[in-house]
Specification:
Structural class: mainly alpha
Number of strands: 2
Largest sheet: 2 strands, antiparallel
Distance between the termini: 15 Å
CATH class: Mainly Alpha
CATH architecture: Orthogonal Bundle
Order of helices and strands: HHHHHEEHHHHHHHHHHHHH
CATH superfamily: Farnesyl Diphosphate Synthase
Strand order of the largest sheet: 1-2
Oligomer: single chain
Number of helices: 18
């Protein structure tokens, strides 16, 4: 737990750098809206990964700071757009950017974040390489979001592209592909940026990238478990939100649908496919899911990927950075919030 706390403190060191890049070339009248997303909270997990990876690779925190700022800006950039796409009104217990400032301003804030990412990467040790990696990562993230939307079983009736291409069936392989793109790719890049900032060779870069990739799978599987089985007093989130949002791209719902017999499986899918999923329907869906081994199977997968993350670090020397990364993977394997 001590290493985990150290890791999160490490991530918070990036805050002044975020504000530096966001406020560069910005009109003072725009400052409040630009700073709102990064001042609304967050764990700073991705910059913490970059900085800890740099330490694990024998590098320095200072040299990795621009890259750490870039990955946190990228994360917030994606959240601003995600909240618009999902019509989400709250994030971290506060109004989302579009809800607070309006849709047009939220889009402008997102564009500003994207260019701030580029400015941060210009301060890395190899701007061209870092920028190429980030561009690929953001394209993967976009594709992951597209798939997540297409895995929804209802809603968005005013969006022809989604209605025409909606996936009525989703396999475990489909889910893992979506999760890597939506969550794992940025965590992988966060770790690779730390290694590149330290100037190490390909074996260490690959080891840290593998760690981030596996951690991303474990992290998202954990999120899905928490959505269905979390305690609201611990998470601060409504249980079953993914059911309300028609998501078949939740590992617990997906595995439950796979295990249920024909009649009950159709009942669960019918709930996901309703135009509006009310509280009673959410409750019934939770009963159906709880009657299966979906939770146990999801937990097994989460532990598997957490162990793979730790195993990837075995190629690195034992030091403070590696210890923090191992502690994070072990926490992700059991987290409840």
């Amino acid at each position: 737990m001590e290493q985990l706390e150290s890791l999160l403190k490490l991530g918070s060191l990036v805050d002044p750098w975020l504000e530096k890049y966001l406020l560069r070339d910005a009109d003072p009248e725009f400052h409040e809206a630009l700073l709102y997303p990064v001042r609304a909270g967050g764990k700073r997990l991705r910059p913490a990964l970059t900085l800890a990876a740099a330490l694990a690779a024998g590098g320095s925190i200072e040299l990795a700071m621009p890259a750490a700022a870039a990955v946190e800006l990228a994360h917030n950039y994606s959240l601003i757009l995600d909240d618009i796409i999902d019509h989400s009104e709250l994030r971290r217990g506060k109004p989302t950017v579009w809800r607070k400032y309006g849709l047009s301003t939220a889009i402008l804030v997102a564009v500003h974040y994207r260019e701030s990412i580029s400015q941060a990467l210009n301060d890395t040790r190899d701007p061209k390489l870092f920028s190429e990696i980030m561009a690929r990562t953001l394209k993967l993230l976009t594709e992951g979001e597209r798939l997540d939307v297409l895995f929804e079983q209802a809603g968005r009736t005013d969006e022809p592209y989604v209605v025409e291409r909606r996936h009525r069936t989703v396999t475990l392989a489909d889910y893992l592909d979506m999760v890597y793109k939506k969550t794992g790719a940025l965590m992988e890049t966060s770790c690779i940026f730390g290694a590149l900032s330290a100037g190490v060779g390909e074996p260490v870069i690959e080891a840290l990238g593998s760690y981030g990739r596996s951690l991303g799978y474990a992290f998202q599987i954990g999120d899905d478990i928490i959505d269905i089985f979390g305690r609201e007093e611990v998470t601060g989130k409504r249980v079953g939100k993914d059911i309300e949002e028609h998501k078949l791209g939740n590992i617990v719902i997906l595995l439950a649908a796979e295990e249920l017999d024909g009649r009950e499986r159709e009942e669960l899918l019918a709930i996901l496919r309703r135009d509006v999923v009310d509280a009673h329907s959410v409750g019934r869906a939770l009963e159906l899911v709880s009657s299966t081994r979906a939770r146990e199977r999801a937990e097994e997968l989460r532990r598997l990927y957490s162990k793979e993350a730790v195993r990837a670090l075995s190629a690195l020397p034992r030091n403070e950075g590696r210890d923090m990364l191992e502690a994070l993977a072990e926490f992700v394997a059991r987290r409840e919030f």
